[in-house]
């Protein structure tokens, strides 16, 4: 937003000079020498003639003529019913003009109501009424200042859509019978400093404010003379303070002894229920809101990336605030819009050190003024907003409390939000209760409005109960397909054929039925995909073949048997953040996502391997790993591919092995016998949703609060390594085995044929 240019005209200055001489106001910040009574209860004065008066008379306070007043009432679409009420304050003879600023869309209605009103009341109104339509997209404050050009009154009184309804009698009197002082003055002001955001209401003495919010009154010609092009009341205050050397933008009336102190309903969100009940239920007292103009300026920035949020209540905005604050703290412009049915739209919310500004959706045309190509719109799935061509993100209302992980997303990652598409593939046979547990955990997942397709694969030997569990299952987040084999395949084809990518943006989450998921499994996947496959990192991690939800607690690949494993031990010894997520070569089969290029290559690799074209099926590809003894496992072959190619999978590494999936190790194809020791070696706690805001481990509890750019790399037996070192090991094994003279590092990526030296 442009800072308003300041050009104070000479008239203003000369008035000021005259004034400062005559009434000895030291126009320095907060050092008013006049008492409250001198300023505010002197007889009215016609500002138009002040300059002449000042030059020939000592008596500034003498009444030259009855000053005239123009009232500007900005109406909003919901303000109509209150019109009668709002106008009831302006029957005084000094009110010459009433300017009703209203949205174009309702100007006709306003005209009818106004006519009825004036006819029906044998009214004492002396004023001329004008209806000034304005475009919704215009700043209300700018519109107010524009309307001054049609005013020929001495003073201008700006109110809100309710007239002076909530204003105490003394302040009403002072507003309707303004006196000499040239500053904008009224009962409501805001004092801002780097540390302070204070709402000012009348108190025992006059107070200086950084700016005023309506209602306030000011001399018409002074305001005209100020120039500038303020878009908000705050900017107007800044102009006043710069032009008038006061270091303040307005004065707040003192309180008359007999008045009761005005409560700060207009300011504190806390108590704002009096005027706007839907936002009254926010108890957090760290939030303070400010009511500047009702509407705000047109949004016309063409920044590289513009973020727009649209929510329906302040509470929703507050829930999403951590994400917005994170974007803002990185310099990203976020426009927060509230699609509220209340006429009142607050303007500012503070949580901790973060200030969120927001406007009424009515005041903005989101469909123009933005380059959709660089716009990200975040709104609720329950609301029907969308900007054609922009990145439109629709989050379910119930997911809002769990969005904090999004704070780690970069602008580019946000823009790629919709690119990855996940398919969940469930492989099951005859463990109905395991399957039911898995399906229920998937359904409890949070998907943040994303569409997820699901496939359930029933083995030929699936039992009746299992089939019933599948039939009873319904899936709300995307399409659901059920497959049933008629010839027994076994686990290898069941898993390998359960999913095949359609594009380079297709991802498969492969789940056997004894797995159970955390409700947060999807954000872990989404965040990792966006970090390592999209945004700034497109093409940067070609070796990454998948994302594990499960945390390794044991490593099975040591030639001499299973060993317990704790990645933090290794990291601590090597000056790596203890709980850093890491890349490991071990493919996980207990809840993991596989990437399209690597999975397609794996299919080709298996086909070639089973054909025995290059070497015998029982040849050993990876030396000294226990998987060589596994005969029917797809993982054995995946490990070979991973070894030759130096592929890696991302693993979580939260404290206490907290994971996004666990395995219950129930008796099945692989597990013949379930011992307690074996179960303890594999089952891990699942990450849970916070309840009642209680602090528990969440996805962003990562070193630095974000996924690492270069995660540590572990080899198949759990030793620290690097991609380069692994690549060298794999390449040399390939040369040794295949006697192939084409170097794997210069052959096409993801091509199993060239990998296996078949040209
Ligand atoms: C907010 O409301 C609470 C309870 O109603 C009250 O104790 C507190 O003083 C209020 N805070 C402000 C800033 O008004
Ligand atoms: C706010 O709303 C919640 C849920 O609707 C309710 O439980 C709570 O009592 C409300 N709080 C206040 C202060 O009204
Ligand atoms: C937005 O992107 C589309 C497709 O890339 C392009 O045709 C269009 O011109 C772009 N629009 C703007 C305003 O840059
Ligand atoms: C914030 O900005 C820094 C520096 O430009 C960048 O490295 C970082 O990724 C950004 N973070 C987010 C969440 O956008
Ligand atoms: C998918 O990725 C592969 C391997 O990088 C690449 O050869 C292919 O062109 C990509 N396909 C599309 C449609 O981008
Ligand atoms: C893993 O090792 C780290 C570092 O020695 C230790 O702090 C942590 O408690 C260990 N985790 C478990 C579950 O034993
Ligand atoms: C992993 O690295 C360690 C240490 O360099 C090495 O002894 C081990 O053989 C490697 N494992 C595999 C499967 O290559």
From TrEMBL:
**InterPro entries for the chain:** Nucleotide-diphossugar_trans
The entry's protein name is Uncharacterized protein
Q: Which organism is it from?
A: Marasmius oreades (fairy-ring Marasmius)
